[in-house]
């Protein structure tokens, strides 16, 4: 859905390189380079994992900017640590990381 928002504008190929849909932990590790220890320690829905995802996407694409989103949409799957509705959005800009927790 997010990729479609970026690419629905004519000329978006000038600035949009691509994206990753990494639903499983394995895909986060294999495609984005998230360390398994990060997921094991903090969970897949955490600030630390979201940061690693954004940094990994930026590094793997060579982009100047990258964005990651991880969360628990529900209606099931929440936990005490990450209840339904928990979401992390992280942008990585070269070596600067900005974290938004909502």
What does this entry show, briefly?
The chain is 35% helix and 20% strand. The protein has helices at residues 2-7, 25-32, 36-42, 47-61; strands spanning 65-71, 87-93, 96-101.
Describe the structure.
- The protein has 102 residues and is of the alpha+beta class.
- It is built from 4 helices and 3 strands, in the order ααααβββ.
- A 3-stranded antiparallel beta sheet has the order 1-2-3, covered by helices on one side.
- The longest helix is centred in the middle third of the chain and has 15 residues, at 47-61.
- It is globular and about 45 Å long.
CA distance, first residue to last residue: 18 Å
Number of helices: 4
**What is the helical fraction, as a range of percent?**
25-40%
| Broad structural category | alpha+beta
Main sheet characteristics: 3 strands, antiparallel
Task: Report Rg.
Answer: 14 Å
Q: Which regions are unreliable across 5 or more consecutive residues at pLDDT < 50?
A: none
Describe the global form.
globular
Report strand order across the widest sheet: 1-2-3
**Run of helices and strands:** HHHHEEE
Number of strands: 3
Mean pLDDT: 91
How large a portion of the residues is in β-strands, by DSSP E? 15-25%
């Amino acid at each position: 859905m997010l990729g479609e928002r970026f690419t629905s504008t004519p000329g978006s190929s000038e600035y949009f390189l691509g994206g990753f849909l990494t639903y499983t932990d394995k895909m986060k590790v294999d495609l984005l380079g998230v360390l398994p220890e990060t997921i094991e320690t903090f969970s897949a829905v955490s600030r630390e994992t979201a940061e690693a995802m954004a940094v990994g996407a930026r590094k793997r694409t060579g982009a100047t900017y990258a964005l990651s989103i991880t969360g628990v949409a529900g209606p099931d799957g929440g936990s005490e640590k990450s209840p339904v509705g928990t979401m992390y959005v992280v942008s990585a800009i070269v070596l600067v990381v900005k974290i938004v927790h909502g």
